[in-house]
Amino acid sequence: MTASTTIRPLADSDSLEALTTLLHRAYAPLGAAGMNFTAVDQSVEVTRERVQRGPCFVAEQGGALVGTATVNGMFDPNRQGFARVSPWFFRRDVAHVQQYAVDPECQGLGIGAKLRAACEDWARTHGHHAIALDTAMPATHLRERYRRAGFAEVAQLQRDGKHYRSVIMVKPLAGVTVAPHDDDAEHHAALVRTLWASFEARDWAGARALFADDAHLYWIASGEHLDDADAIIRVNAIYPEGWAIHVHEVTPMADGRVHSLVQVNHGDGRFFAHSLWRFAAGRIVDVHETWGQFEAPPAWRTAEAIGAYRREGGA
To answer: What predicted TM-score, i.e. pTM, was given to this entire model?
Structure first.
């Protein structure tokens, strides 16, 4: 008789060494087939970092860990620039399942489905409209398994250092009437987050792919126009080095545009850009952008003169 299986959150008392060994066992056949998934040989430190991205669920059977899945919401373009490989990772309405594994000796018993259900419940509770995962394109048996579970392929990507291309698969959660797609408001906002993350990484090819060929950028304060995508990329690529971008806000607007506010630190200077973005066919086609520079306020503006007034840093 097979022992009963319990699905629960990872506990502080659980061994990350045991969890890492489980991942190695589950992903070994994929590694043997030439697909160098991270979980094939990841360290305990990598396991720890990945389970900290969001809730980690484990399947326990007879006191042993026999399965696991970690789920998280949108990646942060400021801290997780690696997610710029696809805008799907920067949507606020899509949760992501990672390091999803079942011990080979326990596969075929429905444990994977129970772990996935726990992830879907978490995503639904936290306001997500869909759940996503990605896998190797050559892993056709996994792609078919996920299709049967309700996932559809929405994008392909190439991760750094991987010997294979990956496919992103998305499943709308129960109650969602319109499935997320790559030309809706959330995806437009995700494109902008991806662009800023690509600029920060100096990933010019990745940034260029987000623009329509005839995209237009207008710098309002200086009256400058850049009239195609190549010029937009070039002006950023040749800008004097030493700058760093921090994304403060990216928000879809009711009229179909997206607004973003970013801060650029360059030497002793702090610069801010308000940008209004337009889209067509899943690409950026127009940007109106206003830049400003941080400067100390004039001496006459004080709490004594104004009342309810303060300055950053308490000055």
So the answer is: 0.91
